[in-house]
Write a structure and sequence with these properties.
By secondary structure, the chain is α+β, with helices and mostly antiparallel strands. The chain contains 8 helices and 5 strands; from the N terminus they run αααααββαβαββα.
């Protein structure tokens, strides 16, 4: 019964019809990426949604702000995080195996290359009522503990895409 109430809460927090309608206003491949993440969320694929969001954050930063050109991955990731309004999260000091690491390395590279974030205790949650999660899409409890919170992150992510669309920033260079 807990899973059923979780899915009800997810559907209450996320209006999938309006997100799909929004996705249709985006050019390819942005629209497909939004729909892929939404599908993962709707089916309870929290890690798959987190992995997509982390990767797409870097991709969109590169495409929207650097014209698809080779830039340092962390610059692309950080630029889109800032554009989402979540820049405060980048100031958090994180450690992995006793060494200082970039936020992008802990989250995106951890999820992509290890399935788990590169911190002592990393997790992915769908929802959180914590103010930090609503502002940034993350809860950081210290240098070794990070939780990526999918739904607030996705809301911020879509908001940034809407702004980019409205500002005419979409480009795509392969």
């Amino acid at each position: 019964m807990k899973n059923a109430s979780c899915f009800i809460e997810i559907r209450r927090k996320l209006n999938s019809r309006s997100i799909r309608a929004f996705a249709r206003t985006l050019p390819w491949p942005y629209n497909g990426m939004v729909n892929d993440v939404l599908g993962s969320i709707q089916t309870g694929g929290n890690y798959l949604a987190a992995l997509g969001l982390a990767s797409y954050t870097e991709i969109f930063g590169r495409q929207i702000f650097f014209g698809g050109n080779n830039k340092n991955d962390w610059e692309c990731y950080n630029k889109f995080i800032e554009y989402m309004g979540s820049g405060e999260i980048l100031k958090k000091k994180l450690k992995f195996e006793g060494k200082d690491i970039f936020f992008k390395d802990a989250v995106r590279n951890g999820l992509v290359h290890r399935y788990f974030m590169k911190v002592g205790s990393g997790a992915v949650a769908m929802l959180s009522s914590k103010a930090e999660a609503q502002r940034t899409g993350f809860v950081v409890k210290g240098p070794n503990e990070v939780v990526m919170v999918v739904i607030p992150y996705f809301v911020l992510f879509c908001g940034a895409l809407k702004t980019a669309r409205d500002q005419g920033l979409f480009k795509w260079k392969s």
